[in-house]
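Today's session is about reading a structure prediction critically. Students often jump straight to the picture, but the first step is always the sequence itself: look for stretches that repeat, for charged clusters, for runs of hydrophobic residues. Only then move on to the predicted structure, which in these notes is written as discrete structure tokens rather than atom positions. Here is the chain we will use throughout the hour.
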Amino acid sequence: MTTVVLLRHGLTAMTGPVLAGWTPGLHLDERGQAQAAQVAERLRPVRFDAVVSSPLDRCLDTAGAVLDGRALELQVDDRLGECRYGDWTGRPLKELAKDPLWKVVQAHPSAVVFPGPEGEALRDTQVRAVAAVRDWNSRLGPDATWLACSHGDVIKAVVADALGLHLDQFQRILVDPCSVTVIRYSELRPFVARLNDTGGGVADLLPPPRKGRRRKAGADAPVGGGAGAGG
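Below is the predicted structure for this chain, in token form.
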């Protein structure tokens, strides 16, 4: 079976409050650099046959940390790039949550086409990302283990496909910054071996602090899910 290690990039200054999309020149911040170094050390024992990245800087930074000390050349595949959010790119999530399209993104993402000439349909994002994974699987062979560094929505879409879920269910999947998700592909079916693995600790299992008032339902639901939407 071909083993694919899906790695989301680390934190940036935009992760969380802003929908970054294809914003150019967006590198990891200090937190993200620390995350990338930590996950690179976790993955050190794994022998990768290839490391493939989205072309966006935050992924190149993260994949570069994994490659440090390895005799491999970084491969770049545009199909692993973030969903093209069109006119939503660079806008605060609190502002986008007031847009009627937001509810569709959360409840019926397969119907969404993001606004503007550069906007992409989420279903097209899934098609290209799954095609990229399948192509690299075929290229590297059934005994290969390789790493794909990508973005929250993209990884969620690949996981949904592997689980046999409709894209409309992909918002139920969490993919946090610098988390590891592992899928093994056999001739008959994929097997999801790990999902959103951030390694050690139980802090994420603790209840969030109580708020002074209840938030409006759905107002804080991120487009990309997890800790940093649209990453």
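Discussion point for the tutorial: Helices lie at 30-42, 57-67, 93-96, 100-107, 122-140, 152-163.
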